[in-house]
Amino acid sequence: MLVCLKRGFGLFLFFTHEGRALMCNFEISFFFCKFDISVSIYLRMPRQARKQSVTAIYHVILRGMDKMSLFYDDNDRKLFLKQLKSQVCPDFEIYCYCLMTNHIHLLVKSNLLSHYMHHIAFVYAMWFNAKYHRKGYLFQDRFRSEGIETENYLIQCFRYILQNPVKAGICRQVSDYRWSSYRLYYNSSASFVNVGFIKNFFSDRIQFEKYLLERNQTSFLEYLSERQMRDERLREMLKALLRGRDIHTLAKDEQKMILRQMLRETDVELRQLARISGVSIGIIRYLNE
């Protein structure tokens, strides 16, 4: 990425990707100063295209560089939410969010996902670096995303995102965590989050709360951290069960028996087992049911 300053506060950025050019103009406020920024994105070098969702709904994760904290205080979190809110429009809807310490979960609907996510990340990183007098990248690589193709997967992913602070040991209940969209769904106040979609799944708040207490059995896009440390141990277990054979050459019944044994005897995530074994996530999910 090449960054050039041009008279006053005009800023031109050149990114490489697919040989196309994009232009956008926006304004950033740092403390008491306003910066008018013009951004040129020059797209040249090919990158692997994101898989498009038929529904245009995605589970998105933004990660801090080298697991660094994205928020040092509540004002940082408020600023990020303000920036998120500023992007909401018919082309970019927010269904759910959860701000963790070093990563962010979003459930969004958009046919222009990359455009809006890059803008959100860029503006927040500029503000964050100015506030804390730092330089360099704030976010790790590109944002990660996974398409949501069914209503069942949508509502389970919704629960997974809201349960993240509980799973991480930050709080005991979903309702205890301040920095998720949980409090917005049965609140009369206006919100930038699209809360209406949950009416398709719950007749009242009692059903909603009950559902959030249930444990998720499905694997979702995750923030990669501790599970990477377990890969070597799991590979060794799989190798021992295979006894020198290739899992793809086994009879289907034996293949299923080995995978079910790993699911039963370990706390392996479904997506992790798919990655290690080379078996599709769809088959792994089926075996886990």
From TrEMBL:
Example GO BP: DNA transposition
Listed SMART domains: Y1_Tnp (SM01321)
Classification via SUPFAM superfamilies: Transposase IS200-like (SSF143422)
UniProt domain Transposase IS200-like: residue ranges: 53-164
Single GO molecular function: transposase activity
Record protein name field: Transposase IS200-like domain-containing protein
Organism (species): Odoribacter laneus YIT 12061
